[in-house]
Amino acid sequence: MENAQLIARDLRRSFRIGSRRIEVLRGISLDITRGEAAFLCGASGAGKTTLLYNLGGLERPESGTVEFEGRRLYTGSTASQSRLRNERMGFVFQGYFLLPELTAIENVMLPALIGGERKRAAAEKCLRDVGLAERMQHLPAELSGGEQQRVAIARALINEPDIIFADEPTGNLDSKTGDTIIELLLGLARERRKTLLVVTHDERLAKLGDRELHIQDGLLAAD
User: What is the pTM of this model?
Assistant: First the structure.
């Protein structure tokens, strides 16, 4: 696909449970275009999260290739792979994964600190952009679920990544808060011209994006 930013070819991944081998990904190929908002849908256990992790460099496929902006993932040193994820990719997870002893702004600054930069002003801007200007010094335990997810979104944006991966970002939220979070994610991605790949089981939310991808029995359904 012309202008494809993320290219996956024939991804396969299986897990062993006892004596059984479960094939989770059974030869998935896809292209994600720069700047698009794609939603990956499917039933629980269909392989959505596994595919997202394979595409984002978090979990190596058993076979197949992933190429991001012309660079093959899962090659080179572990340090170079980690640097690519830290600098070029942003991640938002269902469980927020905020460090409880750090304030909102300290959590947002973490990816920058890992790269050797402080970026406090950038972190403040990210928190303002997600509507948390008044909550920067609060600990995660002092924030609602929706507010914690907003911190996680701000953290994903701090290094100005080229692509944001979101794994069930509304999974722990009520529907109204979840709708707000998806609208926020989509708005920020479009405003900042970021590519967005969201895993969701909610078909209603998926229709808000530019494209829906459906995974079933380890394969992508035909468009």
Answer: 0.94
Query: Which distant-in-sequence residues (6+ apart) come within 8 Å of 130 by Cβ?
Result: 150, 151, 153, 154, 184, 188
Amino acid making up residue 145: G
At 98, phi and psi to the nearest 5? -90, 145
Task: Tokens 């079933």: give the residue.
Answer: 216
Encoded amino acid at 31, one letter: D
The residue count of the chain comes to 223
Strand partners, 14: 23
Q: How far apart are CA 162 and CA 31, in angstroms?
A: 15
The predicted-structure confidence for 126-139, as pLDDT tens digits, reads as follows 999 999 999 999 99
15-44 per-position pLDDT tens digit: 998 899 999 999 999 999 999 999 999 988
Question: Tell me, what DSSP letter sits at residue 17?
Answer: E
- Report the C-alpha gap between 66 and 63 in whole angstroms: 10
Evaluate whether 93 touches 173 at the Cβ level (below 8 Å): no
- Six-digit token string for 106: 């300290």
Nearest by Cα to 173 from 153, 147, 146 = 146
